[in-house]
């Protein structure tokens, strides 16, 4: 790491604190449109509290720069693949049905989490166990708990 | 007479139902997104064709099993299987990470059985007088109770107080999103249809706790949990000795759980948080809460299972359900033609007492069943290769979130919140304060608005907020919890200085 | 025992009814009955009461699930996206489905909903504790006149049936009371029993559920409720108030007319069952029979009334 002032942890912490302050300000703005006083009191109080505490942590961090925090070591494409697969699953669910979209999530997660070497045998075993897990859950939810899965 | 009810609870059919209920409930509870409410709602029609008491035993056993099962996911995956197990993650996951997951699961089982027994015994012997607790709690008491719960944020975020408080405030803002519960506005949706239903607690829990764990798991090749080379059987003996040493903690937490369970506006998650807070406040110097302290798990798990018996007290005595599962049981009772209310213990005494004994028996059966399932759950989580574990859990989060209210929007909200939670978690904003804010926010808001309305109408706002004895007691506890630990720490530090 | 034999009788009757019933549309397999609220409320309880009768009469399971959120809005906004084959139905409540879309865009409009049947209503009622000094409605009015705004009354939510009733009654009686909103009737009743408020704007069902812990001062019905023969109606006391919260079912708007008609007939069949009627009356409900044919007129009248009240109360523009 270079100097703490420009480290990932420092910048990121400042950014998140600033984001929280922004959330507070946006809330205050939104509450202006409420018709009922009862629905304003609480969000306004909490938003002010959020702005104060988030500003506090922002200022404190500015005065005491450090490189605490940060995304740490790890492989980015794996993280992104997992998240992308999950979102893809949720977005495609209404159109292609639950099992097919679930398979996307499972496959994405499987590839993202697989750090050992692939060979035909593991691929087959993992694929099969995936099918079993998904089938079991699908059956449990759809037929035992009667959840109307798409 | 009482003994006769005990015997009628002991019929082979009732025993089988209790055992089946506990096992099914444990499995249901251990899956994040699957709640006791859902399992009960599906099973109610089956109970129409049963004797009312047997039906109740089945429903009660599922409920109590589910509350215990919530601990598995909390300990092994850092994801509360039910909201009641939120505080179980605080010490459970650290324990599992350092290789004590088996011990943690066994501890949770012992604690759950103790808590379940205390709650059920309170229901058996003290239900009518204790039901008054539910009525003594007015809006202001709920308000202060939520503030007490929120004060836990301060002790959870040592060294990061400002961020902890900001996280709590952020969580409370999240709880405002959507159609307001008791006023007539739609808040913070910015015109989006997706947000009208707000952030559901269960889907937020899955997102904030589980998704970050998954994202971290895939990024590095290490094993998920540390495992000792010799995989021992679940460390039952060790867990039992630890539990025996923490008798005071177990009993105190169970009593807290019973009392909080009686409050219709609180529930298992609040009970767990309050018990955890108290266990932490009275901790011995060597205990490190939040880093895998067995007493933390025991406090939460005994408290949340005690809410089962506690919650049935207002349900049966006053006809006011304490929790959503209680509400379903109440509905089932009404359809069976059983009238709840003050006269129920006389008029339908045999049903009620058989049910309570059944609940006690189910709680006892949870000991062997829970230890056995716990052992299996632990073994499978540590032995499944990570490449299968991650996608399986990921699939579970999606199907579980969807099932809460059959909504794809909830899945998207859960994922979005999860990614957001992971990012801000990396910069010191932990998930727990946000979750505390999300759960306690509505209680605080409703209590405040109602208390203010009543206080302003009667022209006595100060008396309303500060003049009522229960409020004063909760307020005093809050102050002690907030002020005492830093004072003690300073005194200890000074003492150590003198020694060196 | 008695209950069992009544059920058996019902099953026998259902066979004959089933033969003459369904013409072109029919249901196959379990029906998903979505309640857009959490469990324990009046909507849930009535669905639970319907459940066994449905099974007996039509041979299929009625599977109840809960889809709470947004005071029902989440469920109703999703209804038309579900399949309209008659295997999915959803509970609907008045005034919710009228007031909510009128306030803001909540993802559905009243006209979008394909209502099949309105089966009962819970009449508004003023509820006090059994030990309350208010023996009659006049006692409450006198107190409110002497101490404006000091009479606190709990109720379920804002812009709800309870809230509208409070505003309407205050105006009629020329008094000023303070409305304290709670999350659901259960919480409002708890506050009443716990002496946190002086009275509650509730329903007749509260009186049925809480028994002799509470006393009803007046009910908003045309005639007295059979369960409370001693409780006067508002009309008798000179206040023209009849109404409450109405409940029924709706289908996705993709459902064919035959399917909607089938559901209307099936619910009518359950509603006509004497044992069912007795159960509902014992629960404090007031029966209602509005099928598809009469639905438009019924909804028009209700919408007019609710919107007028809400506008006068300043709840909508």
From TrEMBL, chain A:
Family matches, as Pfam families: TctB (PF07331)
Residues of the DUF1468 domain: 18-150
Domain of life: Bacteria
Parts of the chain that traverse the membrane: 12-29, 41-60, 80-111, 123-141
Signal peptide, first to last residue: none
Keywords on record: Membrane, Transmembrane, Transmembrane helix
The protein's name: DUF1468 domain-containing protein
Automatic annotation (TrEMBL), chain B:
Keywords linked to the UniProt accession: Membrane, Transmembrane, Transmembrane helix
Pfam families: TctA (PF01970)
Start and end residues of each DUF112 domain: 15-436
Transmembrane feature ranges: 15-43, 55-75, 103-126, 133-155, 161-182, 194-215, 254-276, 351-378, 384-404, 411-440, 470-489
Highest taxon in the source lineage: Bacteria
Protein name: TRAP-T family transporter, fused small and large inner membrane subunit
The organism of origin for this protein: Roseovarius nubinhibens (strain ATCC BAA-591 / DSM 15170 / ISM)
């Amino acid at each position: 790491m270079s100097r703490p002032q420009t480290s990932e942890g420092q910048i990121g912490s400042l950014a998140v604190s600033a984001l929280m302050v922004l959330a507070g300000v946006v809330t205050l703005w939104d509450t202006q449109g409420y018709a009922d006083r009862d629905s304003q009191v609480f969000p306004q109080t909490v938003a002010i509290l959020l702005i104060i505490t988030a500003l506090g942590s922002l200022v404190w961090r500015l005065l005491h720069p450090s490189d605490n925090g940060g995304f740490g070591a790890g492989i980015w494409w794996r993280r992104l693949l997992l998240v992308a697969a999950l979102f893809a699953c949720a977005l495609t669910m209404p159109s292609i049905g639950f099992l097919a979209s679930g398979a996307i999530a499972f496959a994405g997660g499987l590839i993202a989490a697989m750090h050992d070497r692939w060979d035909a045998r593991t691929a087959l075993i993992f694929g099969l166990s995936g099918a079993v897990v998904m089938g079991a859950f699908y059956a449990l939810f759809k037929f035992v708990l009667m959840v109307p899965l798409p | 007479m009482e003994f006769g009810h005990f015997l009628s609870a002991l019929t082979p059919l009732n025993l089988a139902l209790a055992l089946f209920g506990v096992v099914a409930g444990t499995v249901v509870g251990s899956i994040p997104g699957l709640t006791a409410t859902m399992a009960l709602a599906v099973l109610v029609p089956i109970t129409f064709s049963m004797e009312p008491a047997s039906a109740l035993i089945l429903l009660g056993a599922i409920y109590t099993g589910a509350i215990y099962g919530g601990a598995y996911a909390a300990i092994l995956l850092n994801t509360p299987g039910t909201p009641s197990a939120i505080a179980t993650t605080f010490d459970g996951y650290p324990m599992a990470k350092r290789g004590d997951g088996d011990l943690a699961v066994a501890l949770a089982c012992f604690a759950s059985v103790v808590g379940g027994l205390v709650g059920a015994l309170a229901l058996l012997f003290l239900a009518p007088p204790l039901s008054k607790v539910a009525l003594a709690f007015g809006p202001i008491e709920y308000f202060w109770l939520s503030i007490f719960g929120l004060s836990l944020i301060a002790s959870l975020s040592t060294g990061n107080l400002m961020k902890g408080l900001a996280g709590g405030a952020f969580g409370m803002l999240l709880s405002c999103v959507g159609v307001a519960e008791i006023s007539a506005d739609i808040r913070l949706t910015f015109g989006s249809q997706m947000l009208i239903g707000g952030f559901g607690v269960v889907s937020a829990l899955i997102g904030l706790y589980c998704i970050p764990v998954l994202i971290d798991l895939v990024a590095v090749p290490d094993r998920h949990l540390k495992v000792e080379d010799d995989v021992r059987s679940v460390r039952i003996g060790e867990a039992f000795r630890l539990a025996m040493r923490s008798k005071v903690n177990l009993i105190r937490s169970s009593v807290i759980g019973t009392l909080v369970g009686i409050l219709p506006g609180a529930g298992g998650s609040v009970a767990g948080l309050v018990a955890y807070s108290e266990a932490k406040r009275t901790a011995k110097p060597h205990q490190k809460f939040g880093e895998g302290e067995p007493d933390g798990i025991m406090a939460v798990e005994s408290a949340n299972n005690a809410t089962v018996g506690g919650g049935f007290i207002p349900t049966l005595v006053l006809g006011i359900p304490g929790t959503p599962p209680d509400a379903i049981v109440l509905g089932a009772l009404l359809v069976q033609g059983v009238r709840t209310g003050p006269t129920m213990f006389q008029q339908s005494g045999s049903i009620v007492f058989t049910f309570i004994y059944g609940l006690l028996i189910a709680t006892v059966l949870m000991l062997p069943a829970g230890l056995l399932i716990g052992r299996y759950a632990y073994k499978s989580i540590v032995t499944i290769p990570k490449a299968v574990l991650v996608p399986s859990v990921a699939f579970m989060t999606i199907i579980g979130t969807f099932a809460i209210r059959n909504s794809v929007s909830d899945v998207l909200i859960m994922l979005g919140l999860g990614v957001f939670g992971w990012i801000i978690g990396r910069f010191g904003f932990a998930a727990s304060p946000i979750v505390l804010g999300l759960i306690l926010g509505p209680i605080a808001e409703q209590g405040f608005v109602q208390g203010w309305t009543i206080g302003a109408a009667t022209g006595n706002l100060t008396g309303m907020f500060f003049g009522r004895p229960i409020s004063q007691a909760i307020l005093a506890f809050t102050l002690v919890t907030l002020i005492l630990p830093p004072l003690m720490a300073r005194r200890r530090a000074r003492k150590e200085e003198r020694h060196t | 025992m008695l209950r069992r034999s009544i059920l058996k009788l019902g099953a026998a009757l259902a066979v004959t009814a089933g033969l003459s019933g369904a013409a072109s549309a029919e249901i196959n397999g379990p029906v998903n009955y979505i309640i857009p609220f959490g469990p324990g409320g009046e909507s849930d309880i009535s669905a639970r009461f319907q459940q066994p009768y449905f099974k007996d009469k039509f041979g299929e399971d009625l599977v109840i699930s809960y889809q709470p959120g947004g005071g029902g809005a989440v469920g109703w906004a999703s209804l038309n996206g579900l399949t309209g084959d008659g295997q999915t139905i959803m509970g609907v409540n008045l005034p919710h489905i009228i007031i909510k879309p009128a306030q803001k865009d909540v993802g559905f409009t009243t006209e979008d909903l394909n209502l099949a049947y309105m089966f009962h209503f819970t009449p508004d009622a003023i509820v006090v504790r059994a030990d309350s000094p208010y023996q009659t409605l006049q006692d409450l009015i006198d107190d409110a006149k002497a101490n404006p705004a000091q009479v606190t009354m709990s109720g379920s939510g804002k812009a709800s049936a309870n809230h509208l009733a409070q505003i309407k009654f205050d105006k009629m009686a020329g008094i000023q009371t303070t409305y304290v909103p709670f999350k659901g009737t259960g919480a409002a009743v708890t506050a009443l029993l716990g002496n946190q408020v002086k009275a509650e704007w509730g329903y007749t069902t509260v009186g049925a559920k809480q028994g002799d812990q509470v006393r009803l001062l007046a009910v908003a019905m045309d005639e007295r409720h059979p369960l409370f023969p001693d409780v006067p109606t508002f009309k008798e006391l000179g206040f023209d108030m009849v109404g409450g919260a109405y409940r029924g079912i709706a289908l996705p708007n993709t459902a064919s007319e035959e399917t909607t008609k089938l559901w209307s007939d099936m619910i009518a069949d359950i509603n006509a069952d004497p044992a069912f009627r007795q159960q509902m009356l014992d629960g404090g409900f007031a029966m209602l029979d509005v099928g598809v044919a009469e639905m438009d007129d019924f909804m028009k009248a209700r919408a007019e009334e609710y919107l007028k009240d809400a506008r006068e109360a300043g709840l909508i523009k």
